[in-house]
Design a protein that fits this description.
The chain contains eight helices and 15 strands. It is an alpha/beta fold. A seven-stranded mixed sheet has the order 9-10-11-12-13-14-15. A hairpin with a 6-residue loop joins strand 10 and strand 11.
Length: 282
């Protein structure tokens, strides 16, 4: 098995929204903001090559939305999904499976592209199966008012219409996927978000999605204002971080603008950062 980091670009979000009840005087030490209180965040995805499959976990924000839409998120940097795949020697048509941790636009927007010849939206990965889970799919296609702006129908419905959609069965909160790795289901950020646990070189690499956006979010109370059920996030995060420390998990960070991966350990004040590393260090 080979794992590759695929950088799809960077965007900006309000620091207060990203850290919830934590004061700016504290979170700005790890995540400095600009004059508009915006912090820069990565949209880092993961490519898995296992001999049978070429699996992409999440896709970034994509490029099909309107200029007005993108003006809210200040896209920056030189990376894109296609450019990063090409650097690794791949093309999107090589991808056999697209695994979507959840269906917020910054995680699945790149899954769909605009077919300008027919003025419609189609899957950007024509040879791939797209993986979600039934509970989250239902949540995203009938969105609550709080998340409606994050679940965009043009990012979601064309997947089902294409016939390329499959579901991971949530038989329990920790279940096997058909792709050779296990999945932790969590419900604090959004309903039934999937956290892949990938065995790699004798370790467990965990794709953190929005359960842990950055190293700045490691302390227990550092929960995003975007989370729909923050108290559930606290419970899920505490249980996971204890396991991560005890089992020396490598945590792959989707949104950390600086750190690609990290590990955590038990400190005097609870679970804390023990070290940062790159995927290539493994």
């Amino acid at each position: 098995m080979k794992l590759y980091t695929v950088n799809t670009g960077n965007f900006k979000l309000d620091g207060g929204a990203m850290f919830g009840v934590v004061p700016k005087t504290i979170w700005q030490k790890t995540n400095p903001s600009d004059e508009n209180n915006l912090c820069s965040w990565a949209m880092r995805t993961l490519l898995i090559e296992d001999g049978k499959h070429l699996i992409l976990i999440d896709t970034g924000i994509g490029n099909k939305q309107s200029e007005k839409f993108f003006s809210h998120y200040y896209l920056h940097g030189d990376d894109s999904l296609d450019k990063s795949l090409a650097t690794l020697g791949f093309h999107r048509n090589d991808v056999t499976d697209v695994f979507l941790t959840h269906l917020h636009f910054d995680h699945c927007g790149g899954a769909i592209e605009r077919d300008t010849s027919k003025e419609r939206f189609i899957p950007a990965f024509k040879n791939a199966i797209f993986w979600s889970n039934e509970r989250h799919w239902q949540w995203a296609t009938a969105p609550n008012p709080r998340e409606k702006a994050s679940f965009l129908s043009e990012n979601i419905l064309p997947i089902e219409e294409s016939g390329q959609l499959r579901f991971v069965d949530r038989t329990s909160d920790f279940a096997a996927s058909p792709l050779g790795f296990d999945v932790l289901f969590v419900d604090g950020h959004t309903d039934s978000m999937m956290i892949p646990h990938i065995p790699f070189k004798g370790k467990t690499l965990v794709y953190m999605a929005d359960l842990l956006p950055s190293t700045g979010h490691i302390p227990l109370a550092y929960v995003m204002g975007y989370d729909t059920r923050p108290l559930i996030t606290l419970k899920e995060k505490e249980a996971f971080m204890r396991r991560a420390a005890d089992n020396e998990f490598v945590l792959f960070l989707e949104h950390d603008n600086v750190n690609e991966c990290c590990m955590v350990g038990q400190g005097e004040k609870g679970i804390r950062l023990s070290n940062t590393l790159r995927l290539s260090d493994l």
